[in-house]
């Protein structure tokens, strides 16, 4: 690889991370800014041609992104909303595939029905990365976030299965066999679930026994690829296999060592940032090759096709979500058990229909001789860009306009955490008393008092959090004062250690060791 090729190779991730960093600093949506920046850059003279290789996206980028999202999800919360997630991840995807397929077949001259269904399957799955990020930042209720996460995790598998069936039928020049398609979906999903569970169970046993956090996280990095490849090797759903493995291991993560958990959070946050930045930049960079492929088309007519498909993608979701959410509540049993969802939350879920890289990867994966391939590529791109810009830009405004917040949930979390901290502190103090009474520990009274004070301070800090860090008179609580002063002390300590290192009075290895201890302490203060 020569220098110019290497520079081109590094230009994409470096530029994507720079734009993502700027967006994060300004409080903007990084995915949206990356797409727009890539779109503009694609027309800059001399810009290298970055082609979206569908195999690389689906087998290299997608598994770790799905796995990370699954690790961060809650199995218990997903189980509570499994009916809604199923109706969105399976029902809505198939509904969108069929309706868009029928309309596209009727609207576009010469487009076979199977090829039209392939288009429907391509644009059906949503990519809620930006919606989830914005929702968490602006306080979208936890249940709504869980539904969007669950839908995003599972809808790709449904869409890609429908896509494979439609493409095979279009290439063969036949009509898709619904019975065969249903059987293929059941096999693909069922086998993917089994493979994901088997791999996750084996890895879970291994991670619980490993005390080396580096080796444990190294193994964790291999899990999404192993689950994906194992499932795809037997023609099952690699997506579902990865998702199931991630949900299972995320649920079991609390049983691993503390070092594994601390490092895991950092590892996957960095992986998410890098992969998502590159992927969304790639989406924007595909504009030029897609537009060039339509050089001989009537752009006015193509624009009408794109507008119709985009509107269908938005409207079908806006119709499906309220119907599937409210229809079950007509049954008294369902209404008494789950209640009636607030219309504001349903409206936000209906609007969170942004499409992403899976749709583009599937479109680019169409065979070269596929009927009207260039047109389908452009229609897919129009839907992806349209939803990211229109829905993505308006989603934060809609959250604020509807006045949706999770203040009640946060207060309830703080209250339950305070009660749990109180119970944990009581158990810790009781155990300390048992050890002293049994004569197991021969310690000074000063040490015992320090341990008691630490346990009591932890419980007190949780109760103080309910007041936002201030007392009844508006003054800082003792824990808040302690954290503020201790941070200043840590800064002074670091300056001394760095100065002594620079004066060659301590070695860099000593500096790294003490810095790590101070960093962990400051991280604990920040968490508090």
From TrEMBL:
It is a multi-pass membrane protein. The keyword Cell inner membrane does not apply. It comes from the Bacteria. Keywords: Antiport, Cell membrane, Ion transport, Membrane, Sodium, Sodium transport, Transmembrane, Transmembrane helix, Transport. This is Na+/H+ antiporter. Its main location: membrane. Residues 18-401 form the Cation/H+ exchanger transmembrane domain. Na(+)/H(+) antiporter that extrudes sodium in exchange for external protons. It is found in: Cell membrane. The chain crosses the membrane at residues 6-23, 30-50, 56-78, 85-108, 114-134, 185-207, 227-250, 262-284, 304-331, 343-364, 376-399. It comes from Planotetraspora kaengkrachanensis. GO terms for biological process: regulation of intracellular pH; sodium ion import across plasma membrane. GO terms for molecular function: potassium:proton antiporter activity; sodium:proton antiporter activity. One of its GO terms (cellular component) is plasma membrane. The keyword Metal-binding does not apply. It holds the Pfam family Na_H_Exchanger. Belongs to the monovalent cation:proton antiporter 1 (CPA1) transporter (TC 2.A.36) family. InterPro entries: Cation/H_exchanger_CPA1 (IPR018422), Cation/H_exchanger_CPA1_bac (IPR004705), Cation/H_exchanger_TM (IPR006153). Coiled coil: none annotated.
């Amino acid at each position: 690889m020569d220098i110019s090729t290497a520079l081109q190779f590094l230009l994409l991730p470096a530029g994507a991370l720079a734009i993502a960093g700027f967006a994060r600093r300004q409080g903007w949506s990084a995915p949206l800014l990356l797409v727009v920046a890539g779109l503009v850059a694609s027309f800059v003279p001399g810009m290298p041609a970055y082609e979206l290789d569908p195999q690389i996206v689906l087998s290299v980028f997608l598994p770790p992104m799905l796995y990370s999202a699954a690790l961060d999800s809650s199995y218990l919360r997903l189980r509570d909303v499994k009916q809604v997630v199923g109706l969105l991840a399976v029902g809505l995807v198939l509904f969108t595939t069929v309706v868009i397929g029928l309309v596209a077949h009727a609207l576009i001259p010469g487009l076979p029905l199977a090829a039209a269904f392939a288009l429907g399957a391509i644009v059906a799955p949503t990519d809620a990365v930006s919606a989830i990020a914005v929702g968490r930042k602006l306080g979208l209720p936890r249940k709504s976030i869980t539904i969007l996460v669950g839908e995003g995790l599972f809808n790709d598998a449904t869409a890609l299965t429908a896509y494979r069936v439609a493409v095979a039928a279009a290439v063969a020049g036949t009509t898709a066999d619904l019975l065969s398609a249903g059987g293929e979906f059941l096999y693909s999903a069922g086998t993917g679930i089994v493979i994901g569970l088997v791999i996750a169970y084996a890895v879970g046993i291994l991670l619980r026994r490993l005390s080396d956090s580096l080796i444990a996280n190294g193994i964790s990095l291999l899990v999404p690829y192993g689950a994906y490849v194992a499932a795809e090797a037997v023609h099952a759903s690699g997506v579902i296999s990865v998702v199931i493995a991630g949900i299972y291991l995320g649920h079991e993560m609390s049983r691993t060592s503390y070092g594994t958990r601390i490092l895991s959070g950092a590892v996957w946050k960095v992986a998410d940032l890098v992969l998502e930045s590159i992927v969304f930049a790639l989406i924007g960079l595909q504009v030029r090759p897609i537009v060039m492929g339509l050089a001989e088309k009537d752009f006015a007519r193509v624009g009408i096709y794109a507008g119709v498909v985009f509107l269908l993608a938005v409207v079908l979701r806006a119709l499906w979500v309220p119907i599937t959410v409210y229809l079950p509540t007509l049954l008294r049993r369902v209404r008494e058990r789950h209640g009636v969802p607030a219309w504001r939350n349903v409206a936000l879920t209906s609007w969170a229909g942004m499409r992403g890289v899976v749709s583009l990867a599937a479109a680019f994966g169409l065979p070269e001789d596929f009927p009207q391939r260039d047109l389908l590529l452009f229609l897919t791109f129009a839907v992806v860009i349209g939803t990211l810009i229109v829905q993505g830009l308006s989603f934060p405004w809609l959250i604020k306009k509807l006045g949706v917040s999770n203040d009640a949930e946060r207060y309830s979390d703080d209250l339950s955490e305070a009660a749990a901290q109180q119970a944990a502190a009581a158990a810790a103090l009781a155990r300390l008393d048992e050890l002293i009474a049994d004569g197991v520990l021969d310690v000074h009274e000063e040490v015992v008092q320090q341990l008691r004070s630490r346990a009591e301070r932890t419980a007190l800090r949780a109760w103080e959090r309910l007041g936002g860090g201030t007392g009844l008179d508006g003054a800082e609580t003792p824990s808040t004062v302690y954290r503020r002063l201790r941070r200043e002390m840590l800064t002074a300590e670091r300056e001394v250690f760095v100065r002594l290192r620079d004066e060659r009075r301590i070695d860099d290895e000593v500096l790294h060791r003490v810095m790590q201890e101070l960093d962990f302490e400051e991280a604990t203060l920040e968490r508090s």
